[in-house]
């Protein structure tokens, strides 16, 4: 049964735009997002280094010949120190870099 022009179907309302658009490159919002992403990645790297040091420690403890100048003896302490340096220094450095780029932009 054909509909007459006076009985047209009601118009559907458009759905609200719920999509978040990424901030434009060079804006302070963009720099803030990049800073958050880089900081999260640095935290992941710190965790990987710490886990690696934990895995190496018992392996090194199994070694019998530890009196010689074996580089392997320094692996776990070096990884822990590197993880500590990264965790302490890099987030601040990233913040400073983001601030510089925001001022320059």
TrEMBL record:
Organism of origin: Acetobacter oryzifermentans
Region Disordered: start-end pairs: 1-26
UniProt-recorded name of the protein: Histidine kinase
Lineage, opening ranks: Bacteria, Pseudomonadati, Pseudomonadota, Alphaproteobacteria, Acetobacterales
């Amino acid at each position: 049964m054909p509909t007459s022009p006076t009985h047209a179907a009601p118009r559907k309302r458009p759905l609200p735009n719920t999509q978040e658009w990424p901030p434009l490159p060079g804006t302070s919002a963009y720099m803030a997002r990049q800073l958050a992403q880089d900081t999260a990645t640095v935290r992941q790297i710190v965790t990987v280094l710490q886990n690696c040091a934990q895995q190496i420690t018992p392996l090194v403890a199994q070694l019998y010949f530890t009196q010689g100048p074996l580089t392997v003896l320094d692996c776990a302490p070096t990884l822990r120190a590197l993880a500590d340096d990264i965790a302490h220094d890099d987030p601040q450095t990233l913040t400073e870099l983001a601030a510089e780029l925001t001022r320059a932009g």
